[in-house]
Structures are given as C-alpha cells and as structure tokens.
Design a protein that fits this description.
84 residues; alpha+beta; 3-stranded antiparallel sheet; 2 helices; 3 strands; 40% helix; Kazal_dom_sf; serine-type endopeptidase inhibitor activity
C-alpha cells in the first residue's frame, strides 16, 4: 500500500515538473534584451545585481552580461533578474 501511495505522489510530482520549470524560466518571447548602450565598456560597476542569461549563466550585473556579449558576439538575452 505504501508503495502505491509513493508511486502516486511521484507521478503527481513528475506531472507538475513542466509547470514548475515554465514558471521559473518564461518562454523566449518574454526574454529581455540588455540595455548595453548605458554602460561605458570595458569597465563595469562592481554592484551585485545578478541576472540570468539565456545561456543559463548567472552574471553579477547587466553590465558584465554586456561585456560577455561584446567579447563573444553572442546574442544573450536576460531570462530574469536574479541568479539562474
């Protein structure tokens, strides 16, 4: 009986996993483009205001994300404010 209950709970959790992941990381259309024009690159302020990039890397702030975009030439968007 305990096995059946555990199995039902696991199925319920697995069924909810996509819902949880989608709420954590929105669709691509909701990603925002960093405003790199406001920063005097190559230097960035040392303030800690993390952002999660579409490359699934956490950047200390938007300016450091802009530096990465400039160095690598990749189009990285901001998924959300805060760490990934």
């Amino acid at each position: 009986m305990a096995y059946l209950a555990l199995r039902l709970v696991l199925l319920l959790l697995v069924g909810q996993l996509p819902v949880v992941l989608n709420s954590q990381f929105p669709e691509t259309s909701e990603y925002r483009t960093p405003n790199c024009n406001q920063y005097k690159l190559p230097g960035c302020p040392r303030d800690l205001s993390p952002v999660c990039g579409s490359d699934m890397a956490t950047y200390p702030n938007e300016c450091t994300l802009c530096m990465k975009i400039r160095e690598d030439g990749h189009d990285i968007k901001i998924i959300r404010s805060g760490p990934c």
